[in-house]
Amino acid sequence: MNEATHPEAAPLTQAEAFARIRLLRSPNIGPVSYAMLLARYGNAVAALEGLPDLGNKGRRQYRAAPIAQIEAEVDNVRRAGARYLFHDQPDYPVLLAEIDSAPPIITYRGDLSLAAQPCVALVGARNASAAAVKLAREFGQGLAEAGFTVVSGLARGIDGAAHEGAFPRTIGVIASGIDIAYPPQHKDLQERIASEGLLIAEQPPGTEPRGSHFPSRNRIIAGLASGTLVVEAAVKSGSLITARLAGEAGREVMAIPGSPLEARSHGCNHLIREGAVLVQSPEDVAELLSGFGGQPRSTFREPSATFEYGPEELAEAEPADIASLLTTAPVAIDELIRQSGESAAAVQLALLELEIAGQLERHAAGRVSLVYKPVEYRQGK
Length: 381
Fold this sequence. Notes:
CATH topology of the largest domain: Rossmann fold
Mean pLDDT: 89
Radius of gyration: 21 Å
Distance between the termini: 55 Å
Number of strands: 12
Helix content: 40-55%
Number of domains: 3
Low-confidence stretches: 1-8, 375-381
CATH class of the largest domain: Alpha Beta
Number of helices: 15
Shape: globular
């Protein structure tokens, strides 16, 4: 999370912690808008009071998440044996905090110190070949023995093998609530990771995984690690999304090459062709990531744009008039700033109002668009 988008950390009271959870669970509030609201109002209690006014500016009667809903969530987190971690607490993973859309609040079970150690993400195909599964297990074990924490997504295939090889030096990031095991086949593995490794969830407890949750989970996997290694994957796969997110965050992107005759290797070969580093052993990965200082050798993806402004600017800004510049086609925020001639804070405030009103959608790499609403056709009589 960009430091320019939230205020300096202050002692977290119980009331503020509850207000933060409620703010993040309120309609149309995501990591970016959450951070901007904290920057504008100073704390979550004040932000909740200001939400209705922002919603009205977007021509919508706005209601925050019900208090009873948050009380039930907090109880469910406790019953699951999990804890909350907020973005500005000392134990929040440093590398994860650096990404633009870092989760403001996560729930976790297990040993949080694993996230403070050097981390590498191992990802790949669910329907992986037997050879690739064996390779992922060996890489997981080798990297754990070299002092790395192995991060993956608990999916079938490569993810599960990477966790098993690295155990207990492993972090599982799930797309469901902390109390939901997915996939069901990995229920025992997930519980084992939660008990002896580290299990992380962004979604509220009780949340079943949906398609939109997996890219969000992937950004956490990439954000926790100084590098992401794709073991085996097709060209169109979630693993390549994770690699792309790692590249945009300025992290190392690595891939194991495979046969051009095997479709499940095409994704890795594509990454290497586009600038990922070719690796063939755990030692290659360890050498690449040891002492990583933020300058990756891979050229797979340039870091995404950043928008510099301070909390004071956001608190004092008036929203820019940018409605005419937006369509349902995603556009970069820095392009909106250039074309409008307004300050970054004024443009971001205008985007915030639109998002809270349910009219704006945020995309990867700092792009936004108006929400697409299909036209309803009525048959004439």
